[in-house]
Amino acid sequence: MRKRVLILGSTGSIGRAALEVADALRDEIEICGLAACTSWRELAEQARRCGAGAVALADPSHYEDCRSECPSGTDVLCGAEGLVELIARSEATFVLSAIVGAAGLPPTLEAIRRGVDVGLANKESLVLAGSIIMPLLREFGSRLIPVDSEHSAIFQALHSGRSTDVRRVVLTASGGPFRKWTAERIAQASLDDALRHPTWKMGAKITIDSATMANKALEVIEATHLFDLESDRIDVLVHPESIVHSMVEFNDGAIVAQLGTPDMRIPIQYAMTYPRRAAGPGERMDWRAARSLHFEPPDFERFPALRLGYEAARSGGSSGAVFNAANEAAVERFRAGEIRFGEIARLTERVLADHRVIEQPTLEQLMECDRWARDEVLVCIQR
Ligand code: MG
User: Fold this and answer.
1) What is the 67 CA–ligand 1 centroid distance (Å)?
2) Which of 95, 139, 334, 363 is deepest in the core (most CB within 10 A)?
3) Cα 172 to middle of ligand 1, angstroms
4) What CATH number belongs to 3-147?
5) CA of 219 to the centre of ligand 1 (A)
6) Parallel, antiparallel, or unpaired for β 244-250 and 166-173?
7) Where do the structural domains in the chain lie, given as residue ranges?
8) 383 falls in which pLDDT band (50, 70, 90)?
């Protein structure tokens, strides 16, 4: 029986890569549903190509356009409710959650409540609501398989030992385009500079997060939830070649790492076919060429977002939600040309400092913290 896969965020870089994998593994993967935020033309085109029975467009203003472009047999849903309804309508057995930001959270929760396995590429949903998601998984017996390359690596490395025997995990980081820049130069970096990632091809938000290292900060918080670890057992190590995707150190001193080319199709495929490993389209390592791998500790001074992420992870509760929302709002202002690069972390720090942490927040409280932090960024900019 083929796996019935639903892709939330099919027009983004993860979604497109997932469709390539599904196309190459047609014998075991069937695409039963697709969802996108605004790219209705591409969504309709994808539905036609892969024969998805149902699609959802988050932006309701292009519902009619999307419907007329989709094949006649395809159910077309729209709006935030449409995304949630798509989970039931598609009868998926696996949901790839790859919608950027908080919009991906309601359909992901719906999938978990239906006992469907989830491949999580949307790290924001764990950072925001890990304290809600992790207990829900246990309650409904669905599995969460990370797609983020570092967490996929840790997930894979953990298979070689017991979780109680883990001493720490080491998240590798490329260091981004400003790895060798001075603090002064980083503070003035342009949008084009920030969008020039040395190893990974990704969407704009995550590429800028890699330049500030907020992405690694989010990944530290993500890992605390996913692997039930305190942040002091999660280290970050800069590794510019992005070949070692992360490592797990066990109590006996043995370190197990997962390696591969920096090709997101590999962790995406692993999540979709888990626990099977199929011959897919991912790019392979060529060991015939001589190569060196480098490792260096991260610089918390030049990359203050990383320090803030650790602080948010340590405070726990609603801090992750506030860190994520403040960072996202500041990145938007940077992309709009309203603030300098160095302001992104500075604004995040100010908003975090003004936040009164809620220790065991409800989902409503987390959403409220998210809104508050976004507003607070705008207030700080206007001052
Ligand atoms: Mg990553």
Assistant:
1) 34
2) 95
3) 9
4) 3.40.50.720
5) 7
6) antiparallel
7) 3-147, 161-261+298-315
8) confident
d(C-alpha 190, C-alpha 200), whole Å: 19
Average pLDDT value for residue range 291-320: 97
Q: For residue 73, what are the contacts with CB-CB under 8 A and spacing of at least 6?
A: 53
Of residues 377, 341, 373, 346, the one with CA closest to residue 176: 341
Instruction: Give me the residues paired with residue 57 across strands.
Output: 36, 78
Contacts of 195 (CB under 8 A, 6+ apart): 204, 207, 208
Q: Distance from the CA of 166 to the center of ligand 1, in angstroms?
A: 21
Distances (CA, A) of 11 to 45, 46, 315: 10, 8, 35
Residues facing residue 77 across a β-bridge? 56
Instruction: Please write the tens of the pLDDT for every residue from 128-160.
Output: 999 999 999 999 999 999 999 999 999 999 999
Interior CA angle at 148 toward 144 and 149, to 5°? 120
> What is the CA(206)–ligand 1 centre distance, in A?
9
Rounded Cα distance between 150 and 215, Å, is 11
Is the pLDDT assigned to residue 202 strictly greater than 80? no
Q: How far apart are CA 124 and CA 121, in angstroms?
A: 9
State which residues have CB under 5 angstroms from ligand 1, the bound ion: 148-150
Query: pLDDT class for 286, splitting at 50, 70, 90?
Result: very high
Between 124 and 311, the more confident residue is 311
Q: What is the pTM of this model?
A: 0.94
Task: Report how far ligand 1's centroid is from the alpha carbon of 153 (Å).
Answer: 10
pLDDT for 18-64, tens place per residue?
999 999 999 999 999 999 999 999 999 999 999 999 999 999 999 99
